[in-house]
Amino acid sequence: MQLLVYSPQVTPRIRYIFNFIFREVLRCDFDFTSVAQQFIDYNGPKFTYADIPLADELFFKADGLLSKNSIEPLNINIADFGNDRVPFAVKGSVLPFDIFAASFYFLSRYEEYLPFEPDEHLRFPAKLSLQSQLGLLKFPVIDQWGVILKNLLLNKLSNLHFGSRKFEFVPTIDIDRAYHFKSSGIIKNAARLVRALAKGDTEKLSNIIRTGLGKRKDPFDTYQFLHQIHQQYGLNAIFFFLLSYKGDRTHDVNIHPNDELLQQLIKNTAKDAKVGVHPSYASNNNVIKLKEEKELLESVLHKSVDSSRQHYLKMHLPKTYLQLIKVGINHDYTMGYASQVGFRAGTCTPFFWYDLQLDKQSHLKVHPFAVMDSTLHKYLKLNPGQATLLIYELMESVKIVDGTFYSLWHNESLSETGHWKDWKQVYEKMLAFSKNP
């Protein structure tokens, strides 16, 4: 039978988070009522989400966050729940915390709308997140709480049906620089040659010369390997291409978007994988430039593009998402941190972005990633073995809840050159582990 939830007031926030937990995570049909007598008369599975219970029914106490429509600093009480510390503590409830308020707070990224001290790229730092402070960042806690909620309801209520879902793995690749030396031009490669000579970098000297003479592939040309290994494991990958005529001089160091080799690469990639736009660093505060980059990719592909991931994960809510919606992006893959692995929104399940300023759900779907190659190597300073073990832990936490594991890699990190030596095996092992039961 259908689950019935009594709430004195069904606000947009309540409707949003209940829909996500019950329909997306738990695959359970439900309905709301604000009529007490209708709830009392209902003979099927039911519970109350309110300040106080109606009688002796199953009762989840509401903290109050979901009844508001404002964005303001909150005094969040913390409770112990098993071995974890959880936010929005309540008393007199079947759970010691408001699972729905806590889930909404994480999923909406409420804390990112409040004043904060940004990092060097004006991003919200992982260390400031409540998940990080409570030690919850490495877990898809909303999905885990959903499983606990499911078991609790099955134990307390009869005739309740939950559907099932399956673990999925989606590898995503950012193409910041399609090639290292190829298509760079004589002047730029000559300058690289001089710098390599001055530093005594024999590996780079050899790569420049041998690539120039056509005796070896460009080190960043790892596309054949990627397509073959994705095909081997039956994975549907997504590639995001950075295309910018006049980008940020320091951060948008891509090949010129009119380069024939780059455009052919994009067309070839689109035959085997989904292709999205990788909005440049410079476009983050320039919606006209963002539109131009999207249209450029569409002109190469001769079809519309509705997926994106921000270069440098440069995102500021709500501005970045509003700009994406304005230019016709329906799917974004930026939700994650550069400095830490884990689940920025507290979930491994794709979700529709909730616009806190308008207090309503948007049509932009957010696909959160769990791990990035440069996070492991640059920020966490892990060696390939340590990185592999951490990926296993993250992926296992997603498998347990039958969620979706998104990884973020770059073509250059598979080059087996420079500081990326021995890192190709990390990617290979990650893909192999995704197929282990």
Description:
- With 437 residues, this protein is α/β, with parallel strands linked by helices.
- It has helices spanning 12-25, 36-41, 99-107, 130-134, 141-156, 186-199, 202-212, 223-232, 260-272, 287-301, 319-326, 373-379, 384-400, 424-434; strands at residues 3-6, 30-33, 46-50, 59-61, 78-81, 84-87, 168-175, 238-241, 274-277, 307-308, 331-332, 351-355, 360-366, 371-372, 404-410.
- It has a 5-stranded parallel β-sheet with strand order 9-8-7-15-14. A 4-stranded parallel β-sheet has the order 2-1-3-4.
- Helix 11 links the parallel strand 10 (307-308) and strand 11.
- Helix 1 crosses helix 3, helix 6 packs antiparallel against helix 7 and helix 13 packs parallel to helix 14 (424-434).
- The two termini are 32 Å apart.
Short description:
With 437 residues, this protein is an alpha/beta fold. The chain is 36% helix and 15% strand.
Question: Quick one: overall form?
Answer: elongated
**Tally of helical runs:** 14
Q: Detail the poorly predicted runs.
A: 184-194, 210-215
**Estimated radius of gyration:** 24 Å
C-alpha termini separation: 32 Å
- Into which percent range does the helicity of residues fall? 25-40%
Sketch the major β-sheet.
5 strands, parallel
Mean pLDDT: 92
Quaternary state reads single chain
Across the major sheet, the strand order is 9-8-7-15-14
Write down how many β-strands occur, each being a DSSP E stretch of 2 or more residues.
15
Q: What sequence of helices (H) and strands (E) makes up the elements?
A: EHEHEEEEHHHEHHHEHEHEHEEEEHHEH
Structural class: alpha/beta
Report strand %.
5-15%
